[in-house]
Amino acid sequence: MSDKPVSFVPASDESLADAAISNRLAANRERIDHTFINCSDIITLSWSYGSDMQYEAYSVYAKTLIQKKDFNAFKETLKDLVEGSPPPDVDVTPQTVSYYFSHHAASSKSADIIESFPEAVDAILEGNIVIFFDQWNCALSYKAVGLETRQVTESVTEPVVQGPRESTVESISKNLGMLRLRLKSPDLKIITLPPSGRTKTTVAYSYLQGAVNPEVLAEFERRMTKLRDLDILETSYIEEILEDSTYSPFPQFRYTERTDVATAALLEGKIIVLVDGTGSMLICPSFLVEMLQSSEDYYQRTVVSSLIRLLRIFAVLIALGLPSLYIAFSTFHSELIPTVLLIAVINSREGIPFPAVIEAFIMEFLFELLREAGIRLPRPVGSAVSIVGALVIGEASINAGIASPIMVIIVALTGIASFAIPQYNFAYGLRLLRFPIMLFAAFLGIFGILIAFLLIWLHLATLRSLGQPYLSPIGPFYPKQMKDVFIRAPLRTLMRSPRMMKNDKPQH
């Protein structure tokens, strides 16, 4: 609450700006009724106060934003406020009420003085109770009991066997509180942007001073100015506004629902973006190598974590190029296949009416269709449909002579490999790139695959995340950071202060 005194305006003063609260109660009520016309959840309650209850006031609130079970108790609080807040030896009049709240305190129950009508409307829509008094050109806004939000539970999208279990929720204040509990440092800065657009969604970002690159932070804040007057509903809205290349299949930012992942990112100099109403946090900037890392890599032993990380890299190659390799070898380079395996492939493809590329496209399309159907269906039946559907369609395709058994195996391995990638949005990019690589393989064989991979690598070399190279620390090459790329070095060599990590990078 501001310490600025709020003066009492007598009833005769009618010179009010359009945004100002009127000192006439009837005028304020008329404006409220006009603003919230056809809004059946907006409730107004009239009050009387004073020694003979001769003065009037009224409160406005949205009943859909307040719990009913606690509202009766809150009504008593409002009654006590109106009748007993000024000193008991002073007559309760509009003048004393306005003077008391302006010069002493709004209330002992966390209320604010509102000086403009738009602020009053915003307070009502945020779930507060706003009280207007006759002959006072201000209003009181009380923080009412909010709606129940989802409790802190285990992350569904980022499960781990070992490590913390807590996940973010749809309340931005709770999420920021969990970050503050994990990183108890005054260097943790939290910037909350003013609500904008019609949704009035609260957006906040956080960084660790001393760890974040000042140039990256300045570029981030410059791009965040584009959010003004936009209706933000989810974190992904901000991703598309901040990213360098909108049409790239590779995501330039990471998502997480885990507070330990967000805290580790802050220690590495990243910026975390949070949006009220969604549990996903945006980590920026993000690089290619980070898309293959999981929080559990740092909770397992070094050897185990390194082997799992190498397995993920191998999974990326399988998810991206296995169908293309099959097309290239079976169509152009059959002499490179061992004789026994070649005979098995020829026998399995006997009677198949389509070339290998058409067969691969059909099976990949059916697999992607089943995966999407399993996601969109209700959870109790989604997994059953996707698993049973894959088995039934695979078996039926083989029996009908549409696909060979080896193609069904290749498509299944490709899908399983994409599931091993920790970042779901990164796996989506690989699924998109798989189809043009298959076309390159169908026209040019193994040389087409090499050309496709070269084009992808050139794209990655030019891609930026908040102006930073996407291939960092591979290109440009940062030797001291290579300990946490392909393998995970022992933690004693990785656990350094943020300032030491910042100094690892050469200054540009």
From TrEMBL:
A single GO BP annotation from the record? spore germination
- Keyword terms: Membrane, Transmembrane, Transmembrane helix
One GO CC annotation, please? membrane
Where does the source fall among the domains of life?
Bacteria
Query: InterPro entries per the record?
Result: Spore_Ger, UPF0353/GerABKA_families
Q: Which residues cross the membrane?
A: 271-289, 310-332, 400-421, 433-460
Pfam families on file: GerA
- Family stated for the protein in its record: Belongs to the GerABKA family.
Q: Tell me what this protein is called.
A: Spore germination protein
UniProt organism field = Paenibacillus whitsoniae
